[in-house]
Amino acid sequence: MAKRENYNELYLFMQVVREGSFTAAAQRLGLAQSGISRSVRELEERLGVQLLVRTTRRLSLTQAGEQLYQTAESGFDALDMGLATLAHYRQTPSGTVRINASLHAIDKVLLPKLAIFKQRYPDIRLELISESRFVDIIAERFDAGIRLGPEVGSGMVAVRITPDMEMAVVATPEHFRRYGFPQSSADLVAHPCIAYQFADGSLYQWELHHNEKKITHRPQGQWVFSDSYMEAEAARLGLGLAYVPEELVAHDLERGRLIRVLQPYSQRLEGSFLYYPHRNVSPALRLVIDTLRI
């Protein structure tokens, strides 16, 4: 392997030429003049060529010195430019932020709030991966995840990103013409209900309340989904009662496409939280956290 040049001596040589003298270069660099002179002399001895012609009044470059100076100048200028580029990356956050979330959270929270990244942080890549199941975000290489409630695994930090969420029991007008309007939670047994299934195969027990008493209802019906969006769509198609976040069906309720019942029984669930490992929070993820935090 070829011996690498002493780039420190090359830099001192370049500064001497730029300043026009050893004295001026020493003053600019805060070094001893004798040390700079010795370094340049050792550079000449190692290269086997004279680089500078020294007189009492001025310095001048030999032909070899002129060629080396141009090479050194272009090389150090390129290095300075590369370092400046690194500073740009430090000042302008970049990189990929990979988040695991439900379609509901992506649609109603992440996209509306993070859309400003298009203009503000164009070097940040956002991967928003929709899954209804809870995943091990570390094992599956996610930077963060979204879930309801602040309960997360050890070593994780949780940050609230939405207010509490109100649930709503809804169905089409046609459904109620056929099955009637339930007056209490006990009447739900007479209605086909659309179910939500967790990743482990268990069904979500509808959590209701009345007079500060918690009531649960096991949905019985033909249709089971693993996503609240699909539950809402099934309700729009008249397939049964659905118990979904109210914001997913707000427009349908306004237009009369769906009707809400048992509102006094509906539960308010704790809002969504962004959770992430405590360690190694990148500048890009920090910006995501600060943007989503409420």
Describe the structure.
- This protein has 294 residues and is α+β, with helices and mostly antiparallel strands.
- The protein has ten helices and 15 strands.
- It has helices spanning 7-19, 22-29, 33-47, 63-91, 103-114, 117-120, 173-179, 228-236, 250-255, 283-292, and strands spanning 52-54, 59-61, 95-101, 124-130, 144-148, 156-160, 165-171, 195-196, 206-210, 213-217, 224-225, 242-245, 259-261, 268-269, 272-277.
- The strands form five sheets. A five-stranded mixed β-sheet has the order 4-3-5-15-6, covered by helices on one side. Strands 7, 12, 13 and 14 form a four-stranded antiparallel β-sheet that branches. It has a two-stranded antiparallel ribbon with strand order 1-2.
- The two termini are 58 Å apart.
H/E series, N to C? HHHEEHEHHEEEEHEEEEHEHEEEH
| Through-space gap between termini | 58 Å
Radius of gyration: 34 Å
Query: What fraction, in percent, of the residue positions are helical?
Result: 25-40%
Mean pLDDT: 90
* Uncertain stretches: none
For the sheet with most strands, the description reads:
5 strands, mixed
Number of strands: 15
Number of helices: 10
- Report the principal-axis shape: rod-shaped
As a percent range, the share of strand residues is 15-25%
Spatially, the strands of the biggest sheet line up as 4-3-5-15-6
**Backbone structural class:** alpha+beta
